Amino acid sequence: MEIIVFESEAYLNLQREMLQIVRTTIREAKEEALANMDPANDWLSPEEAKSLLGIKSKTKLQELRDFDEILYSKAGKVIRYSKTSILEYLNRHIVR
Questions:
Q1: pLDDT of amino acid 29
Q2: pTM of the entire structure?
Q3: Helix-turn-helix domain spans which residues (predicted)?
Q4: Separation of alpha carbons 61 and 42, rounded Å
């Protein structure tokens, strides 16, 4: 077995550098994901929205719209739901 010894200051510097690398990597990954996100793919049909929410009822979907819990767009009789707002809604209701 080989033992490596660090001075405490060198160890703390190594920790800081590693933390900075992780933060930079996460920030770059987030920026890339946002840049590659296609806004046209954000809109879901009512069936897709119900599936994502894990509900079966049109009434519950209507209730979420009525109480401004999720964003939607209505063009004539066609209603589309924002996938981003549904995911935000689900994240707001996480039980820990």
A1: 84
A2: 0.58
A3: 43-93
A4: 17
